[in-house]
Design a protein that fits this description.
single chain; alpha/beta; Glutaredoxin; five-stranded mixed sheet; two-stranded antiparallel ribbon; 5 helices; 36% helix; 20% strand; elongated
Amino acid sequence: MSRNLRTVLVLVITTVVILGGVLLVQQPWKNSSATDPSGVTSIDVNLNGQAAPAVGQLATDFTATTITGDTITLSDLRGHPVWLVFGATWCVNCRAEAPDVAAVAQAYDGKVTVVTIYVGESVSTVQGYADRLGLTTPQIADTSNSIATAYAIMGIPAHFFIDSNGAIQRIVVGSVTKQNATDILNSLMG
């Protein structure tokens, strides 16, 4: 074997070993902030053993202050359907579906209450985001993750569709389209 061929072979083997080492250290397949193809971004919320709510159960009640200073208590919204949207301003899929959520919310204004809950976000961050996008539905900055914990949110976006009696009728983890949301809301309204 010639000296040049050995040198090239050593360089190729060294390159493969280095790239393999980089992949093992970085483990991109385990990156919790990465978005997977299903449209879900993993988040780290300490659930403290909290079980996830299930379809058919009453939605976990909460009281929170919106970014405009209004107080919302979920149980006070009974009488018509509610759509809870859990997301974050930094979440790519959440940002991508925001125009569809806003369009559906506008189409169902007065018939369905859409409440967006930003997991672990500050009021000022959510306010700036909502202003830039022109969002008009109630926006809640869940700074302490208390609502996210109550709903056992482990991936965003997450959607809870609640009927007029306060029972969860559908849970969708991942992005929804305008058509998906419309179909689900129409089924809630009978």
